[in-house]
Each structure stands twice: as structure tokens, then as C-alpha cells.
UniProtKB/TrEMBL annotation:
One GO CC annotation: plasma membrane
Protein name per its UniProtKB record: YitT family protein
Predominant location category: membrane
PANTHER family for this protein: UPF0750 MEMBRANE PROTEIN YITT, UPF0750 MEMBRANE PROTEIN YITT-RELATED
Membrane-topology annotation of the record: Multi-pass membrane protein
Segments crossing the lipid bilayer: 16-35, 41-62, 74-95, 107-126, 174-191
Superkingdom, natural source: Bacteria
Provenance organism: Pararhodobacter marinus
Pfam families with a match to the protein in the record: YitT_membrane (PF02588)
Amino acid sequence: MTDAARHSLFEDVQGIAFGSAMAAFSVTILTHLGLITGQTAGLAVLISYLTGWSFGIVFFVINLPFYWFGYRRFGMAFTIKTFCAVALLSALNLLAPDWIAFARLNVAAGAVLFGMVCGTGLIALFRHGASLGGVGIVALAVQDRWGWRAGWVQLGFDAALFGLALVLLPDWRLIAWSALGALVVNSVIAINHRRDRYIAT
């Protein structure tokens, strides 16, 4: 069995760096296609679309209130790791436009690719005792408390956000493709991040 407490400092650093980088890349795919996602990241994407503000800055600010909850529920190490993951994702997102561009990306393939890349990044963070904050912290708390898989918990949160997006965004087809991406993310987590094998705290 693998436990976050058994990872060395180097392993945690590379795991958090990898997970944050994969998540940042997935957001680049997502926003290039004009899609949204669920959880706190989805709310940040929606706000960035509606206001023109940078996703990285919005995501960083939205997460600030959740760190106290993370500290109370999971402890200082988890909170520090999560803060670092969120800060790194936000910074990488600000740099992404200068580093990455897509000449052509099919929306269906992009939605699935987003889901796989994001899910992989989140699993890496979970296995190294971190998350991307916000709803992710709540989902991990629910999994720890009642044994409900974090991916399915997050899927429930996503439903409300997608309902809001249907009202605020003009193209329902992009919302449908976004739902596919969110389903892939949460399926990857639910299938591969099992509480009886990997503990986030």
C-alpha cells in the first residue's frame, strides 16, 4: 500500500510539480476550446470567460478561503502542499500562452484529452498529499469521512456549475463537450484513486 507519508521530500516535490503541470496543461487545452470544467477550476474558468480576467489569478484567489478548512481537516502539511500546487498551476497558466499554441485541436478529442491529462495530474497530487484546493478539499474530506470516492463526489458538485454555465454561456454544444471532459476527469479519479490503496493524508 502506498501512503503519502512514505514519500520522500524529493518524491513529493516532483509529484506535486508533475501534477500541477499536467493540470495547467489541461486547462490550456480546455480554454483553447472554450470549454469549462467542474469544481473550483470550473468556476474560475467561467469567471475568466465572463470577465476577461486571467484564469490563473482568479483560480488562486478563489482558493484562498479553503485553506483554513484544509488545515483543520487535513493538517498543515496537506495545506502547504495544496497551496504550492495551486500557486504553481496559476503561475504556469499565466506563462502558457507564451509556451503553448494549438494549430488544430478537435473539440471531441480535446475534451477527452483534457479529462485524461487533468485526471492524471489530480491523482498525482492526491497521492502526494495535496489537491488543487476548493471543492477538491471537500471531496477528499467526504471520501475520508464516509468512503465515497472523491471523483463521484466532485461530479455532484459539477452538476450545479454546469447548470449555471448553460444559463450564462451561449453555445450549449460546448457545454455538452465540457460535460464529456468532466466525466472523463472524474472517471479517471474514481477508478484509479482508491481509498483502500492510496491515502491523501
